[in-house]
Amino acid sequence: MSIILKNLCKNYQGLPVVNRINLEIQDGELFVLLGGSGSGKSTILRMIAGLTDPDGGRIELRGRDVTHLAPQLRDTGFVFQNYSIFRHMTVAENIEFGLRVRNVAPEQRRKRSEELMDLVELAGLGERYPSQLSGGQLQRVALARALAYEPAVLLLDEPFGALDVKIRGQLRRSLKEIQRRLGVTSILVTHDQEEGFELGDRIGVLERGNLLEVGTPDQLYHRPSSQFVATFVGGGNVLVGELCPEGVKLGSRVVPCPPNTAMPGHLGGARVRLLARAENVEVREEASLLEGHSLGSGQVAEATFTGSGQRLRLNLPELDGVRCISPAPAYGQEHPQLEAWVASRPEGRPFQVGQQVAVGLLHYHLLERTGLRSLILVDFVQESRVALDFGLRVSEATGAPATLLSIAGVNEREADVTARLAELHGSLLERAPNLKMCVRRGGLSEEVLREVREGRHELVVIGEDEGPSVTRLGPWAQRLLAKSEVPVLLVQQDRPKISRIMICSAAGEPGKGDVWLGGRVAKRAGASVSVCHAVSETAEPDHKARVRNHLAGAINSLHAMGVEARPRLLDMGSDGSVAQTLLQEMEEGNYDLIVMGMPSKTALATRLVRASSRPFLFVPMT
Amino acid sequence: MKDYRIPVGLLLSSLLPLLLMPLMAIFLFAGKGGPTHFLQALGSPDAQFALRFSLLIAFATSLINAVLGTFAAYVLSKYRFPGREALLVVVNLPVAIPTVVVGTSLILLWGPIGLLGKYLDPMGIRPMFAPAGVLLAHLFVTFPYMLGAVKPVLDEQEGGYEEAAYTMGASPWQTFRFVLLPTLRGGLLSGTLLTFAHSLGEFGATVMVSGNLRLRTQTAPLFIFAQFEAGNIEVANAVASVLAVISFLLFFGLLRFAGKER
């Protein structure tokens, strides 16, 4: 193993820019770190070279721990984006520099630099000065210079970033060939996925300091795990479908689960994200010609001829109701749209805008179901730890990373808040190694919602254990509940263990989200579930039957998930209210977690929360 | 081509009395008494001492400030620390402060009753009104020139050169010696020449701290002034013309070098 990174960390102003990176790179491999700006890719490379000090973790090069070694002693070759070729030295002197500081005899240096100039196709230019060379030639010199002393690893930091497209292509091919020929273990950092695909034996995709996925270009393109990688690496279609016994339901259509997908079919109603690359969307004049799984008929909305093929945008009325993550729906768009790419057919007519076509999927891939990435709000004013303890337990139960969030108010210094949060974060790392932290400044509910969007969190945990019960679920929390697109967990008093969960389906429309999320938590925590619905004594028999049906459906789904569940049809009595009935059930059942749909009006929620100190999980209705 | 005769003619006629004629005047007057007088004036022990002393001080000043100025430029260019901006202003201040004020402040610090001087005086150390005082004054006054010549070159490198050298295995010293120093060559040379030239002509601060003691602390500019005041205009002119020639030579050297670098 040439390069091993273990838990490598770097913080900048208290915030992680490189977050616990673990990576092993084989001998002779060309590994590509792919990520946008600010993803931490260059920082990782600089830490390997010793130009930046890591804040934590370990770096091994060829079995040697170099974590805190000076850059001179690491034996790395580094190619910088801006070349950093010494202007006052000739090309040959530049290439020989690494040998010169190693006290290699002049004749040998000369010989080696000539070899290298041949290798990088600069033979005969040894006596030139850098000012007489083009950008592409300079980068070739930089490569030769970094290879002259046969370093253990070669590190390339966006080496082609400053060059124009044509030269970039030539240099990529040269680099790949040279790297193969010499067999030198290399890491190349780039933001250009095409470059990554062309060069990388394997690619690691970075996002905001986290290494999301590592795989061969083929794996990452066709079988990515996460949505970020699916959309960052190559374009295509990401649709949200629903699992059903026959496969994946997309609107009125069902496509079978792809083979060797570890996706339990019994998770009825669970949502999955389906990735279909543009070239795997089949477009035909007639449905009978389709080879893949039909998505029904569609209409060509846009058609662009690109020479080798045609890029199409298709309107698909039969997918109505299906959420399209990519391509992002345009404003005012009537039906879901898919992107398709069809190879040019010299004999046939190209597709025309407005043409009716049959659309199918040749290949597709289901993205991995993510755990619940929770965002735990840490409030230093209240010194409250209930949200923290409970939130960590939930995140452990769902097997997903959690993030601590502190919001600096107008009277607080952001640095102070950051320092306090960092201390807390550090003390919890042993318990939750994937724990992250983040500090924002501004209004509570606004910043929480913003962080949810930016950090793509899936659950917000807030705590309110102080103060009189009448102030619980105050204005900011109500704003949060009203606007949140992700579930919100409100903790008021700690429960050591989640063993009984109550799902209230009385609060609004009988939703599936609450049942599914409650079931997921129950499954992980090994808890039993009661699905409750309060019905008034005077309700019509029809209504009661519908409720029973709904409860039975919920119980079926939960059983299918492997969760112990029972229905509870609660009788409100002749003069009882929904809130009172639910509160009574909470006390009787001594539940550890109450799951309910995000109320469209927060009155009921407020009443329940103020009357009971149990944890509440509010699930948005979708 | 545009007609240049009128603007260039105007420029020359305005510069003639301002710059060109005064320069000519020195040489015209110096040669007035004939070569014998000229050599005799230069040969006097006082004149000889003043010229030698001036050259010696200029040489020492250039040497010390070359090292100190480069070091200052390096630190100010490569490190970011609290108070860096303030320090940048302070080290460049000598350009703006009147030299007489510099002289006064040095006396107030090192003089027999000065802040530090009063502790040194009982030990018999009296830097003021001695060659050491002259050197201190010149170091102060010429400090920004080296810094100004070297720092922009270092700023331009933005650390890339050093990092590249480090990854290739070069020690900090090797990096300085093989990578940084060669790129600084131009800046170092022009900075040194500027320092030397300014030191050679320094008057205001020197006259304050030296006490103008003949054969002890009298530099060439002070000698010229003293002789002029005493009415020995020809003697003053002889030394002045020598100073002017040295300055011209330094300046043309600088120009030629700058041309080559480009």
Q: Can you give keywords for this protein?
A:
heterodimer; A: 622 residues; alpha/beta; Rossmann fold; OB fold (Dihydrolipoamide Acetyltransferase, E2P); ten-stranded mixed β-sheet; six-stranded mixed β-sheet; 31 strands; globular; B: 262 residues; 12 helices; 79% helix; 0% strand
CATH class of the largest domain in chain A: Alpha Beta
**Model regions low in confidence, pLDDT < 50 over at least 5 residues of chain A:** none
Share of helical residues of chain A: 25-40%
In whole angstroms, the N-to-C terminal distance of chain B is 27 Å
Q: Give the second-level CATH assignment, the architecture of the largest domain in chain A.
A: 3-Layer(aba) Sandwich
The largest beta-sheet of chain A arranges its strands as 24-23-22-25-26-31-30-27-28-29
Q: What is the structural class of chain A?
A: alpha/beta
Tell me about this structure.
The complex is a heterodimer of chains A (622) and B (262). Chain A is an alpha/beta fold. Chain A has 4 domains: 3-222, P-loop containing nucleotide triphosphate hydrolases (Rossmann fold, 3-Layer(aba) Sandwich), CATH 3.40.50.300; 235-366, Nucleic acid-binding proteins (OB fold (Dihydrolipoamide Acetyltransferase, E2P), Beta Barrel); 370-494, HUPs (Rossmann fold), CATH 3.40.50; 496-614, HUPs (Rossmann fold). Helices cover 30% and strands 29% of the residues of chain A. In chain A, the strands form 5 sheets. A 10-stranded mixed beta sheet of chain A has the order 24-23-22-25-26-31-30-27-28-29, sandwiched between helices. In chain A, strands 6-7-8-3-9-10 form a 6-stranded mixed beta sheet, sandwiched between helices. Chain B has one domain (39-261): MetI-like (MetI-like fold), CATH 1.10.3720.10. In chain B, 79% of the residues lie in helices and 0% in strands. Chain B contains 12 helices and no strands. In chain B, helix 5 (99-110) packs across helix 7, helix 7 packs across helix 9 (172-201) and helix 9 (172-201) packs antiparallel against helix 12 (233-261). The interface between A and B is medium-sized, with 28 and 17 residues.
